[in-house]
Amino acid sequence: MTQERPIKIACRNVWKAYGRRPAFYFDSRGYKIDPDALADRLRAEGHLPAVVDASFEVATGEIFVIMGLSGSGKSTLVRCLSRLVEPSAGEILLDGRNLLKASPKELIELRRHDMGMVFQNFGLLPHLTVLENVAFPLKIQRKGQKEREERAREMIALVGLDGREKSFPNQLSGGQQQRVGIARSLAVGPALWFLDEPFSALDPLIRRQMQDEFLRLQKLLKKTIIFITHDIAEAFRLADRLAIMRAGKIVQIGRPVDIVLSPADDYVGQFTEDMPLLRVIKAGDLATAINGTTVDHDIEAGASIEELIPRIAGGAKAFGVVQADAPRRMIAAADVLEVLERDSRRQRS
Q1: Would the pTM count as exceeding 0.85?
Q2: Where in the cell is it found (predicted)?
């Protein structure tokens, strides 16, 4: 994916260390840093390496999920990317520009215009209505009242809260409050969208609904997204690619199908062992050239293999796989059944 579309943001050898004098450890002139050795030294000398030598790239329009347990460094990393937390070392390039060299004034403008942020704590202003909350970032930008209210109403409609414009936050459910937070973050039209565990405080049913809503919005808006979660099922459901973190370090990056089929180590394997292949593997992962094959139905490349089982039971032999800006391909029923058999063997072992 990153080879086909331009890189929106690149994270290169980023560190965040807490302690008495973390800067001392990153004067690397004349020698190459050994990440594991340096992390061990930092811990031994009373420092906390919260992010260890993190490197990745996110393509324009990609959903990149950073996943890990509590304390793995994922939230610190996303705050480094927006410079809400200052990295100790490394580079963060937004459209090729190094954010670590941006002045405080430039950062304020970037956050106001180019970045959207949604956090687990909804952060709504309790004394403002839904309309006023969503319009608030535009007020900060000194937009006129008519312009900001029109934009706010558009975003409120986008997240399905028509008719609640005059409601206050305490009159909304948790899911509705998070929809307001999403609408507010989208009001400025950010090119880059950070979401840090936005649904983790919600009940399971509402969380699933918000994931559906998130995917619907992304299909419409095609934002570049960095999404933080500790929930492997959520990560696999939402991600184009994901990074798994442990003790501040990224241990594997890949598509969900790559990670579940080829975990980098036992730690990653334990995360993924209970994930059904039928839900992780998408039609696009198995699709091949049509080459004259007759297909029974067309499906989207992002459809899970699980969705095809009822149609195969009904007699379908092959499916056309469609994807925006890509040639139509196909997947045979036999390939789907092979995954089903592999999943059964995996669960029995």
Answers
A1: yes
A2: Cell inner membrane
